[in-house]
Amino acid sequence: MQTSLIAIIGAIATIVAAVPTNDPPVKLCPSGLYSSPQCCATDVLGVADLNCHSPSAVPFSVSNFRDICANGGQRARCCVLPILGQAVLCQTPPGLGEQ
To answer: In the record, which residues are listed under signal peptide (predicted)?
Structure first.
């Protein structure tokens, strides 16, 4: 009886240890057109952004994305794929409101 109980407890412990605990990656920008998270320095009329680059660290939340960009004096934006640092179409990430 004790052997069965120990075997059951061991099996349960093995199953619990095998369950993955990694959180899924944070979705910073919506799917589709505006799907590229960028830190941008200059905003032109709320549509075009200049001097953009990927965040310097991997953000763990949308507010962390904002903070990472702000540390470099830039704004967190969700852009259409930028070309040569010019992200022509950008918008504020969902959940941040206007910056």
So the answer is: 1-18
Domain span holding position 84: 29-94
Note whether 31 and 37 are within 8 A (CB).
no
pTM over 0.90: no
Sheet holding 75-79, edge to edge: 86-87, 48-53, 36-44, 75-79, 90-91
Residue closest to 38 by CA, chosen among 10, 63, 66 = 66
Question: What is the CATH number for 77?
Answer: 3.20.120.10
What is the number of other CB atoms lying within 10 angstroms of the CB of residue 36? Answer: 17
